[in-house]
Amino acid sequence: MGWLSDRAQLHPSVPDAPAPQAMTRLAGMWVEAGGMLEWLRLLARLRDLAKAPRGSGRPTVLIPGFQSPEWALSPLSWWLRKMGHGAQGWGRGTNRGRVEEDVMAMVAVVKRLAEDAGRPVALVGWSLGGVISREVARELPDAVDRVVTFGTPVVGGPSYTLAAGIYGPELCAKAAQRSALRERERPLDLPVTVIFTRQDGVVSWPACIDRVTPFVRHVEVRSRHMTLGIDPDVWRVIAEALADKG
Questions:
Q1: Overall domain count for the chain
Q2: Is residue 40 part of a domain?
Q3: 20 to 30 Å CA-CA from 230: which of 6, 11, 127, 236?
Q4: For 152-161, how does the pLDDT look when each residue is reduced to its tens digit (9 = 90+)?
């Protein structure tokens, strides 16, 4: 994986990941505050990004994170289309955190996309958008053939995120139990690429580590949570994950 910069590292597994921790708003926002220069880094890497693997038109749905508007992933969607991928937004505007409702709606959308294209769909999700992507893929094993997540908690529901205070301990506990049960009883049987950063100030990064999915690849980057969507290493990893092999 020589194309990764010195700010990214491939991990087939992450055995050194500690237990996830509860996030505090003060500490989390302090970590996130230094990320706005990522735009300059992205612009400086655009020429290099043009060498990324090209797509074959596969329908690819991008799902934003909690309280993020759909346009937050527009730069990534634009670039993926430019690189030959059939990228599009999820069509539901700002992600308000209505996970069950969103999963049901996206199941219908993704099923229709796969039928119209005559091929499976790829799902790319940021933070909570990755949670939704995983659940849609779980419901549609024949209509989704790969998932890419970045900054997405795999364990604990919102328990190890800054959103824990919004949901409250009771809802967090119930969400964590449901998540653990689904992962144990219906593990994803398709390629999953997990992108995480130890500098994440919104999600406790160990909660992003997927210890259940058989075909998972972990890639660590050195972004902040709020700038993962414009990190050139994240873009390149996504292009690699979406490329058809062989």
A1: 1
A2: no
A3: 11
A4: 999 988 898 9
